[in-house]
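Q: Hi! First time doing this. I have a protein sequence and I read that you can turn it into a structure. Is that right? Here it is:
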Amino acid sequence: MTRDQLAAELLRISKLQLSDITRAVKNGEKSIALNEVVDLGRRLNRLADAVAGRPAPTPAAPAPGDQVPGGQVPGGQVLVEA
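A: Yes, that's right. Below is the predicted 3D structure, encoded as structure tokens:
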């Protein structure tokens, strides 16, 4: 990965996550904003591992009912209740 490719990927990740964080904060959804911050950290750690040549760990799938406040499960997926 070249320096320009790394810079482009960092910019893409940060813009996407910061947009989500900003929107959640403006809407008063603190738990969603915190989940987005955690997701940003995970993405940056995976990118750092890729650059360092380390294999990425396989994320554990959330268990059914493993929900955080705000209707999201770890990993940023939104749950829709019927």
